[in-house]
Request: fold
Amino acid sequence: MLGKSIKELKVNDHAEFSKTVSETDIYLYAGVSGDFNPAHTNEEYAKNTFFKTRIAHGMLSAGFISTVIAMKLPGPGTIYLDQTLKFLAPVRIGDTITARVKVSEILAEKNKVRLETTCTNQSGIKVIEGEAIVSPPKPM
Reply:
C-alpha cells in the first residue's frame, strides 16, 4: 500500500496522529537514541530545572510528525527530505500530543510537497512548529 501521489494531494489536505507520552516512552527513546540527559531521566535532577520535573525529549514529540508523514499524509513510500522545528513548550509525562501535518505547497515538477508541521498538547498549547519537505510516492 502506497500513500498519496503528487497528483492526489491538494493544498490544505491534512492529517493527525495523537499519543499520550508515558514514562516508558521516555526511557525507550533514551535507550534507542542514547540521550540520557537527566532532564528526561532523573527526577531529582529535574526538580532543580526551570520545568521542575522531567520532560520528554523534544525529538520524541517531533517523531510523531514523522508518523503522520510516513503513515497518513502523504503516507507509505514518502521520502522525508527536510524538516525545521521550533520547540515552543515542554512535553511532560501524561501529556497527549497531537501531531498535525498540512499541505502548504505542491511542487509538482519536482515531486515535492511542502508541509506545515505542528504538535499541540491536550490543552491546545503548541509545543512544536515547523515545516517539512517530502517526496510523495510515485504511482506504480
Remarks:
- The mean pLDDT is 97.
- The longest helix spans residues 58-71.
- The chain is about 25% helix and 35% strand.
